[in-house]
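Checklist before submission:
- one chain only
- standard amino acids only
- sequence pasted in full

Submission:
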Amino acid sequence: TINRPLQEVFAYLSDFQNGTKWQSGLVEVKGFSEGPMAVGYQFTGVRNFMGRRLEALVELTSFEQNKQFAYKSLSKSLPFNQTFLFETTAEGTRLTSMFEMETSGLLGLAKPLIASSLKRDMGADFDTLKIQLENRVPEAAAK
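Returned file contents:
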């Protein structure tokens, strides 16, 4: 739960350029599709994961303003899906994220190590996100 209004949390997370500010392994987001955010929108994410630099073309698979969005990797070397759900609560916004990653071949052999690393990294990243959003001055108030 993030002590900020849902619209603010959704706007921050759906601006994928902000990902490098709160995700420790994400080093660059580039190659955005032209036009408004909608299903089919694409971008490239570059991250460091378990000592490797990985680049993945990512496509938005679902998008409902202030409710949810989901994307998947189109890169065969790093197949994943991630969904973000947003709900208003008395305290602010409940953010739920689901992450699925296919592991086969060499990745399949390292599945327990990958799962442990992802759980640890994502937990820390969501803690960072919560702190950043709760401590930032909204842009409208800063003017």
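Reviewer check: Residues 52 and 100 are 19 Å apart (CA to CA).
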